[in-house]
Amino acid sequence: MADLTHNDFLNGAVKAWQPAKGYRAGVDPVLLAASLPAKPGQRALELGCGVGVASLCLLARVPGVTVTGLELQEEYAQLARRNAAEAVAAFDVVTGDLTQLPEGLRQQQFDHVFANPPYFQRDRSTAAQDTGRDIAFAGETPLADWVAVAAKRCKPKGYVSFIQRAERLPELISEMGGVLGSLQLLPLIPRAGREAQLVLIRGRKNGRADFRLHEGLVLHQGAQHGSDGEDYAPVIQAVLRDGAALPFPV
């Protein structure tokens, strides 16, 4: 990739090279990483890691965790490796297709498996001009495959976590409910009084607890954006700037 930007996350605790055009990590992977109930000494796998922002944010928040990232697009995987090397982070990046996992990954299980799968269905969206962006936002791999692979690579009693658009929640719950238990849902609401656009959902391998629907988390203060600059709610500000954990208890 010729044109890159070097961007700060978590107030500069995480720095990442990413393409100036194409898929660019924003708030969503940071929120996903902050939602994981990971502990030092545990191992995590990110499916579709892109340039590694979510994984690096997890590593910054929970010292002692080790993370493996799987990325389909070699150019993004190379950037993730570069970002990991510059951060001196315990983050190994593997290039491959989640539906045809490299042999090394097929032999492993993890305490946490997490992903930010493409938000849009290929047959219901217009393809982006940039290939990397198009694959990231509307890839060919069905949600069912993301869920199935995540569940297989998760240890018994481990956790699988996704961030996804609210309209795809019925599909996601159906697929996760078939292979995971103890599902928990946290709606992410742009502003008070509005409908959730994104959701965080977590399941547990061999979990038996009842489904839990948490109170929605409001991301921004005020009824509308009223000035230049940020207006994140204090709890979200703490996540995005200070590297705090998201209030999504197990």
UniProtKB/TrEMBL annotation:
SUPFAM superfamilies given in the database record: S-adenosyl-L-methionine-dependent methyltransferases
An example molecular function term from Gene Ontology annotations: S-adenosylmethionine-dependent methyltransferase activity
EC number: 2.1.1.223
InterPro entries attached to this UniProt entry: DNA_methylase_N6_adenine_CS, SAM-dependent_MTases_sf, Small_mtfrase_dom, tRNA_Adenine-N(6)_MTase
Domain Methyltransferase small: 31-124
PROSITE patterns: N6_MTASE
Coiled-coil boundaries: none
KW Transferase (keyword) present: yes
UniProt keyword terms in alphabetical order: Methyltransferase, S-adenosyl-L-methionine, Transferase
Example of a GO biological process term: methylation
Signal peptide from the UniProt entry: none
Primary enzyme class: transferase
Protein name as it appears in the record: tRNA1(Val) (Adenine(37)-N6)-methyltransferase
Gene name of the record: yfiC
